[in-house]
Amino acid sequence: MAAAGSAVGLGNIWKFPYVTGENGGGAFLLIYLACILALGVPLIMAELAVGRGARRSPVGAFRALAGGAWPLVGMLGIFTGFIILSFYIVVAGWTLAYVVFTASGQLTSTDPQALGQAFGGFISGSYLPLGCAALFMVATAGVVIGGISNGIERVSKLLMPLLFALLIVLVFRVITLPGAAQGLNFYLLPDWSRVSADTFTAAIGQAFFSLSLGMGALLTYGSYLNEQQHLPRSSLSVAGLDTGIAILAGFMILPAVFAFGFNPESGPKLAFITLPAVFASMPAGVIFGVIFFLLLTVAALTSAVSLLEVVVTYLIDEWYLTRRRATIVAALVCFAVGIPSALSQGASDVFVINGVPFLDWMVKLTDFLLPLGGMLTALCVGWIIGPRAVALARGDRNGFPLATAWLWMLRLAVPAGIFWILKNDLLALAVWLIALL
Ligand code: PHE
To answer: Are 230 and 387 in contact (CB under 8 A)?
Structure first.
C-alpha cells in the first residue's frame, strides 16, 4: 500500500496527460505501456527484493549485496530524489493553491483564455507559489519526522479509493461533453508519424517517474517488507494500480482539452487550465473541484514523503543524524534547490534557460536520471547479485515460477532496452564527462 501511495501522485494526474499531449497521444500511450511492462515490472521487483534482502537504505543495500563501486548507484538515486522533490513541491504547491482558488469561485469559467490567464497570473508571482511550495514541504517533513507508518498511510488508504471514484465520475462527465470524440481519437488512435527518439525518452522517463522507479524509493519500501510478502504479486499490483490511474487521468483531461479548445501541447500547465473548465461544466462543480484538488494534494503528499524518506534514511544510516535533524536539513536544502523552479514560470527570466523554464529542465533531467538509475540497478541485480537475488525475491515460502526469466531480463533485456532509448543522452553525458576530465 505504501509503495502504491508513493507511485500514485502528480505523475499520474498532472504529468502523464501533458506528456501524452505533447507527444501526440495514442502512439505515446502504447510505447508508455510497453515501457511499464517490459522494463518497469521486472525492475520494481528488483528494487523490492534488494531492499528486503539488505534491510538498508539504497547506498547501504548496494554496499552490502554488491560492494565495489555499486553504492554509487544508491548515491545517484539520492541525488535524483533531491532533484525530483525540488520541483515536486512546486507543482504540489500549485495544487494546494487550486484548492483555495476553486473554493473561492475564481475559476468558474470554461474559457481557455481566462483560465490560462488565471493560472499564468498565479504562477508568475513570486511569494504565493513559493509560499505554497514551502507549506507543502513543511507538511512532507512533518510526516517524515513522525515516522513512515504513522497516520499518513492510514489516511491515504482511506482517501485514495475516493480519488479513484472521483476520477471515474469526472471521466464520465468529460467523455459525454460535446466534442470529446476528437480527444478520444487523439488519445487512443496511434499516429506513428508523431513518434521520434524523443517520444521514447519521454515515455520511459514518464514510466519510471510514475512508478517511483530508479532512485531507491521502492528499494527503501522493500526494506520494510516481511519475508512472506509475495513480490511478483506486489510488483504487478503496484504497476497495475499506478498505470490504471494514469490512463484514467488521460481520459479525464485529453477529451476535455479538445472539447473546450485548449492546446494539448500546453505542457506542465495543462491539467491546471483544463480541470477548472471541467468543474465549471458540471453541477456542484465547485465542490467536486475542491475535493479533487484536496485528494490530489494528499496523493502528492504520499509521493513526496517517499522521496524525502529516501534522503532521510540515507542521512540516518550513513551519517548517523537523528531522524528529526536529517529531515530538517534535507527539507531546507531541497526547498532551496526548488526556488529556481518556482520562480521560472514568469517571475524571473534568470531561471529561463534557452527559452525553457528551469522547472522543465528539472523534469527533463529526471526523465534521464531515473532510467539511468534503473539500468544500473538491473545490471547490478542481474550480474553481481545474480541468483542470490532470486532467493531474495522468493523470500520465505513463495513460489516464483518465472525466476530465471526475470533474472535474464535484468541481465540483458532491461539494460539493453534502456540503453537503446537513452543512447543519445548517454553519449552527450560521456562527451561532457570527458571534456570535464
Ligand atoms: N511516482 C510519483 C508520482 O507519480 C513521483 C515519484 C517519483 C515518487 C520517484 C517517488 C520517487 O507522482
So the answer is: no
Residues with beta carbon inside 6 Å of ligand 1? 6-7, 9-12, 84, 209-210, 212, 215, 217, 303, 306-307
pLDDT for 59 beyond 80: yes
Is the pTM for the entire model greater than 0.70? yes
**CA-CA-CA-CA dihedral for 93, 94, 99, 105, to nearest 10:** 150
Q: What's the CA gap between 293 and 162, in Å, rounded? A: 12
Centre of ligand 1 from the C-alpha of residue 283, in Å: 32
Q: Classify burial at 331, counting beta carbons within 10 Å of its beta carbon; exposed 0-12, middle 13-18, buried 19 or more.
A: buried
Q: Which domain holds residue 234?
A: 2-436
> How many C-beta atoms surround the C-beta of residue 168 within 10 A?
12
Amino acid at 33: L
Residues 40/207, Cβ–Cβ less than 8 Å: yes
Distance 209 CA to ligand 1 centre (A): 5
CATH of the domain at 81: 1.10.4160.10
Ligand 1 centre to CA of 175 (Å) is 28
Ligand 1 pocket test: pick from 15, 89, 143, 210 the residue with the most ligand atoms within 8 Å of its Cβ: 210
Q: Are strands 356-357 and 352-353 parallel, antiparallel or unpaired?
A: antiparallel
Q: What's the pLDDT tens digit per position in 150-171?
A: 566 777 778 888 999 999 999 9
